[in-house]
Amino acid sequence: MSDRKIKVLQVNKLYYPVTGGIERIVQYLAEGLKDETDLEVLVCQKKGRGCTEMINGVKVRRCGSLGVLFSLPISPAFLWEFRKKARQADIVHIHTPFPLGDLACLLSGYKGKVVISWHSDVVKQKKLMIFYKPVMERFLKRADVIIVSAKGIIDGSSYLGPYREKCKVIPFAVNPDINRKGKEYLSRRKAAEQKKDPDHPVRFLFVGRLVYYKGVDILLKAFCQVPDSVLHIVGNGELEGELKSFSAAHGLQDRAVFKGNVSDQELEREFEDCDVFVLPSVMKSEAFGLVQQEAMAYGKPVINTRLKSGVPEVSVDGETGITVTPGSVEELAAAMRTLAASPEKRASYGAAARRKVDEQYTMEGMLRRVKEIYEDCV
Questions:
Q1: Which terminus of the chain is more solvent-facing, meaning fewer CB atoms within 10 Å of its CB: N or C?
Q2: Domain count of the chain?
Q3: Are residues 148 and 248 in the same domain?
């Protein structure tokens, strides 16, 4: 095996330019390891005919799909493509939850090594677990290694307990561009802060989709109790209309600003201009919270929630910010008031946040540890 590169088939539901959290991690791994391994990516289309592309030097096979049902592509072609491509692979690395990927691996007769990246339990489609759970259990038994991004994901999972000995914790990395821009911002921040109006209202920032598990309704209710401050909400989603109606009904329209989806440059400015980042998620569908890492790269303190997932391990209560009970309006409001009233706390937590990014969340560290798992497997 030392005479040639390890052949890796990286498998996920979708791939860039789809930009969900899992898709970003798959892209980071594929682009970061493409020169050190013989790597190919196998995914589905959301809808349409299959195709093969080269994206930033990575070969990506997108299987044709009839559409998406219950968040899962309907792609019979995927089963065939997996069987064909897995024959050539030393390692199949599958990102879950992706039931079609589990099934394809079990049906293919593949005899090589299987690495799972377990991003989260299936939380929303609980009724479908009646059908999926037996497949998932067989797949977990089949796996050689299960990668998780935080210990809390193992502890909080309804399914990983019996397979704990297979689990390896490898934290996700911060996007290198964001990491670099955060460093550049911090190097010039003192001059910028000297020009800032000392009486400017404290600015809170949320970035994410406006969906059920993100807890933005809780954030707005808490914000009602935080005077002399501003809240910027970046992102859109199915709850946008409902959240805007609540804001208007409670007189927040001048203080709570819905920014919608923004460009990378605008997002950079939002991170720079905020004083505190808030991740108020209420369900463990929020398995890690990459976006809080991004705020930490800019040296910003984070308010997050005590979910049974990796979220409270990324930003640690009393070290890089404040952690509150999920769904607690009162606790969230109190944390926001505490940080709004204390520039010293904000500075201390923010500096610790930046140090943690440098020590634990680098791309080099993540890629090195995944490559070590590949090497150990073969």
A1: N
A2: 2
A3: no
Q: End-to-end alpha-carbon separation of the chain, Å? A: 8
Q: Is residue 31 part of a domain?
A: yes
Classify 261 as helix, strand or coil: coil
Please indicate, yes or no, if residue 163 is contained in any of the structural domains. yes
Helix/strand/coil (H, E, C) string of 69-136? ECCEECCHHHHHHHHHHHCCCCEEEEEECCHHHHHHHHHHCCCCEEEEEECCCCCCCHHHHHHHHHHH
- The DSSP bridge partners found for residue 92 are 9, 114
Give the span between the Cα atoms of 133 and 99, in whole angstroms.
Answer: 9
pLDDT value at residue 337: 98
What does the alpha-carbon distance between residue 148 and residue 165 come to, in Å, rounded to a whole number? 12
What H or E segment, with its residue span, contains residue 188?
helix 176-194
- 199 and 274 assigned to the same domain: yes
3-class DSSP state of 373 = helix
291 C-beta neighbours (distance < 10 Å), count:
23
Other C-beta atoms lying within 10 Å of the C-beta of residue 342 = 14
Alpha-carbon distance of 28 to 14, in angstroms, equals 14
Domain interval for residue 184: 176-360
**Does 212 lie in the same domain as 92?**
no
- Going from the C-alpha of 40 to that of each of 6, 136, 183, 353, the distances in angstroms are 11, 24, 33, 35
Domain assignment of residue 2, yes or no: no
Residue 68 belongs to domain with CATH number: 3.40.50.2000
CA 101 to chain centre: 20
**Residues 120, 47: one domain?**
yes
Helix ranges restricted to H, the chain: 21-33, 76-86, 99-108, 129-142, 151-156, 176-194, 216-223, 240-249, 264-273, 290-297, 311-314, 329-341, 343-360, 363-377
**What is the DSSP secondary structure assignment for residue 144, as one 8-state letter?**
S
Chain segment 136-183, per-residue pLDDT in tens = 999 999 999 999 999 999 999 999 999 999 999 999 999 899 999 999
Query: Are 204 and 101 part of one and the same domain?
Result: no
- pLDDT beyond 70 at 124: no
- Statement to judge: residues 230 and 343 lie in one domain: yes
Q: Which two tokens stand for residue 328?
A: 């607690």
- CB-CB contact of 47 with 72 (8 Å): no
Average pLDDT, the chain: 93
In the DSSP assignment, the letter for residue 159 is S
